[in-house]
Each structure stands twice: as C-alpha cells, then as structure tokens.
Recover the amino acids of this structure.
C-alpha cells in the first residue's frame, strides 16, 4: 500500500524474487501511468525491473486497496509519513491504510509497517485493527533503509533486515519472504516492534549527525585555513569512526533525514525527555543550508541583475527527489536578491519547475553558465566531475565557481583562472 519510492521499489523487488505483488495507491494518475509502464520516479534499474515483472504477470498496479487487502498474505504499508507543521509525523495515511486493511482482510495476514513511523505505531495500529476486525493478523515493523539512487541495490543486498515482532507466526512468514536474502548471509534481526521502529529513527539521526558534525566544522576550517577534506580523512581513517558520511556538504535534505530527526525530537519532548542533541543536528543543518549565499556575496556583493548558474537540484545525485534540497533554499535566496537563476540537473528539473516555474532551466551544464557571473555546485552528479572547464570559463561573464560539494581541487581551479570557493577548504 503506497506506491512511491519505497512502495514501488519494494513491490518490484519482491516480484522479482518470484512473489505475486499488487502495488496499491490512492493516486489514480500514478497507477494509470505505472500500468502503461511509465515510471513515476527516477531510480536506476527500476524501470527495467518494473517492466519485466509486469510483463511476466507478477507485478500489478491498482487503486483497489480493498480487493488487494483481501487477496494478500502480507501487506507492506509504504505510505508517506510527512512532517506536520508542528514537527510530528503525519500518521493519517498510515491509519487510512490500516482501516482499508482492517475492513477487508479475510484470513491471517501479516501487516508490515515499512513507512518510518514513531515508536509505538505497531501497537497503535494493532489496537485500531482489533476494533475493526476479528480476523487474525499481526502488525509488525520492518523499517526501510534504502538509499534513493541505489534503492534496488540496497534491497537486493541489504546491510541488515530489521523485523520488529514477537509473534512466531509472523517471524516464520518474514523468514520465508526474506529467505533469498538470508540464504546469502544477509543479517536479519528479530527485535521487539518498538525497538525496530527506534532503530530506523536512530539510524537516520546518526547519519544526519555525522553530516551536521562536519558541516559545523566548516566555518572554523575557513577561518583558520584548515581543509575539511583532510580533517574528514584524518578522522575517518580511525577505524572507530570510519570514513562514510563525513563529507562537508550544502546540508542534508531529502524526504527522510530532516523529518525523521524532527519527529525524534518531537517524540522525546512529548515524553519530557531531553532532546537537545537531536535538536542541534537539525539546527546546524538549517543554518548551514542558508549560509551558501554568503559565499557568492564575497565575489559579488550585489547579486541583483546578475545571472547565477546552479548545478544540481536534487538533494543528492542519482535521484530526482528535491524534497528539502539545499538547492531550493539557495534558489529562493537568489530570487529574493534579484539574481537571474539558470539551473541544470540531469533528473530533477521537472520536479523543481513545479516549485520555481519562473527561473530558467538549461539542457546542459554549459548552457547553465552562459553569461553567468557565478555558478554554484549544489549536487555532486558525476557529469560535473568531467566537464571541459576551459569551455565553462569561456562561457561565463565572470569565472566564479562556488563548489558546495567539494568536487573540484581549489589550487587547480585557481591555476585555471577561476575565482573559486570550496566548502571548508581553508
Ligand atoms: P512517497 O510520498 O513517495 O509515496 C507514498 C505513496 O503513498 C504516495 O504515492 C501516496 O499516494 C500513497 N498513499 C497515501 N495514502 C495511501 C493509502 N491509504 N493507500 C494507498 N496508497 C496511499 O513516500 P516514500 O518516499 O516512498 O516514503 C514512504 C515511507 O517510507 C515514509 O514513511 C518514509 O519516511 C519512508 N522511507 C522513505 C525512504 C526514501 O528514501 N524515500 C527511505 C526509507 C524510508
């Protein structure tokens, strides 16, 4: 239930393992497109997987949640849990899906929360279903750890599978379903439902904290001439720390880290627990996301009337997802400052156009710098690593590059005649 990033990937991948899958969504347009083989999101490898499994009859798309609930042995709830204005996770979609399930199941069914939900949700949904149905069921938690851009790979080769249930019957079903993974030694952890729910929030908060940790050191590096890339390597080689998720960046975004960190803060504070540590992760990120315009202002104290190129719109490479992307914050500031923005991204232009219909969009990275007084690198798509930089320079009105992803080498850029600012590069 829910055929967005998580639902479509989960559905297509379980179908590919030989299961019969019905992907349900309330969005008619989405279901119609998927039935025609048109993908609604960009995710490497997904289109081929969806088309093949649909053609072979294992994967179907429907808006009929009632029929699908009655038919299924296992139901994965993959609906959105977006952030509400007060920071809490919006649980309406989860409860609506639960109601559809409760009203329609006819036999023992395992209901799996794959959406990221506050601790205690499996228990809450169990209570809700018991009011609706007398049919046997188990509500369990199986948090999703996929990374957008590598979602298929992550499904096929997960670091771990976390299953939150104390029901032996549900454990058996999940062991069977994930058999292809466990047979090749992927670890499966059976824990209590509330532990599984917390593992998901803790994992995202830990990853977000590493990003905010490095970004919080950026101003100090810049003030003292230290290089954040070397700091990152210097600490990452410590095996207790490890090298991943230690890159300075324009700030984390996406549909998960920002809302999940805030939801964790909300849950803790609603229980009168001290959430200062987790609140700080979010605060550092929000401040950092707003700081990049200052890098441009060092080169051009007045941005009004200037053309500024923006390379990268998605919150990270290999996805078209722009939710809470630092690029959006920057573009908003540029528009406010009166600059003329030309943006380029390999996949995320269509999504961005819905938010900023009036800025210009380029077909190539080169078109985004034509006549520009600066270009800002906001997402480290591979295409930006291998550009003809002499051509870039010749197209620009003023060869200013602000590299918020540390894609380029500062001395090399200076040698080539660019006016250059990296992120925490001293
Ligand atoms: P999404 O917004 O892309 O998709 C959610 C889908 O659910 C939408 O298509 C919506 O129409 C549908 N929906 C809403 N109510 C429904 C209902 N009652 N019945 C059927 N469909 C319904 O969201 P997403 O990015 O796939 O995330 C889903 C959940 O997984 C969230 O809780 C998210 O936090 C979590 N998660 C996401 C990722 C990620 O990288 N996107 C990774 C891990 C976990």
């Amino acid at each position: 239930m829910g055929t967005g990033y998580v639902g479509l990937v989960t559905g297509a991948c379980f179908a590919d393992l030989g299961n019969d899958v019905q992907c349900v969504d309330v969005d008619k347009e989405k279901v119609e497109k998927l039935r025609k083989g048109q993908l609604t999101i960009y995710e490497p490898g997904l289109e081929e997987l969806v088309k093949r499994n649909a053609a072979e009859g294992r994967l179907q798309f429907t808006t009929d949640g009632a029929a699908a609930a009655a038919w299924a042995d296992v139901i994965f709830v993959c609906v959105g849990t977006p952030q509400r204005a007060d920071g809490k996770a919006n649980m309406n979609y989860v409860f609506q899906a639960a109601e559809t399930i409760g009203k329609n199941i006819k036999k023992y069914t395992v209901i799996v929360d794959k959406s990221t939900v506050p601790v205690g949700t499996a228990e809450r949904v169990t209570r809700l279903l018991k009011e609706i149905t007398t049919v046997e069921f188990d509500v369990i938690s199986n948090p999703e750890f996929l990374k957008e851009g590598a979602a298929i790979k992550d499904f096929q080769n997960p670091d771990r599978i976390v299953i939150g249930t104390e029901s032996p019957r549900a454990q058996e079903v999940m062991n069977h379903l994930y058999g292809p993974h466990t047979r090749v030694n992927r670890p499966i952890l059976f824990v209590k439902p509330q532990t599984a729910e917390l593992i998901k929030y803790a994992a995202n908060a830990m990853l977000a904290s590493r990003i905010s940790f490095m970004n919080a050191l950026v101003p100090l590096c810049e003030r003292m001439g230290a290089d954040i890339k070397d700091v990152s390597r210097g600490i990452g080689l410590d095996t207790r720390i490890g090298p991943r998720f230690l890159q300075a960046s324009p700030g984390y975004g996406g549909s998960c880290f920002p809302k999940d960190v805030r939801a964790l803060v909300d849950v803790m504070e609603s229980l009168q627990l001290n959430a200062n540590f987790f609140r700080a992760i979010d605060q550092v990120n929000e401040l950092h996301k707003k700081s990049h315009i200052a890098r441009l202002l060092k080169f051009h104290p007045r941005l009004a009337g200037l053309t500024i190129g923006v390379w990268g719109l998605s919150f990270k490479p290999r996805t078209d997802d722009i939710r809470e992307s630092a690029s959006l914050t920057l573009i908003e500031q540029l528009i406010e400052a009166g600059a003329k923005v030309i943006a380029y991204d390999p996949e995320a232009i269509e999504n961005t156009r819905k938010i900023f219909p009036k800025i210009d969009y380029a077909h190539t990275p080169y078109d985004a710098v034509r006549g520009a007084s600066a270009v800002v690198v906001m997402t480290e798509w591979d295409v930006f690593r291998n550009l003809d930089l002499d051509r870039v320079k010749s197209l620009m009105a003023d060869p200013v590059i602000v590299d918020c992803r540390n894609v380029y080498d500062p001395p090399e850029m200076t040698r080539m005649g660019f006016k250059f600012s990296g992120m925490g590069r001293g």
About this structure: Residues 1-7, 24-27, 30, 65, 78-81, 93, 96-97, 115-116, 144, 146, 148, 255-256 surround nicotinamide-adenine-dinucleotide (CB under 6 Å). The chain has 18 helices and 13 strands.
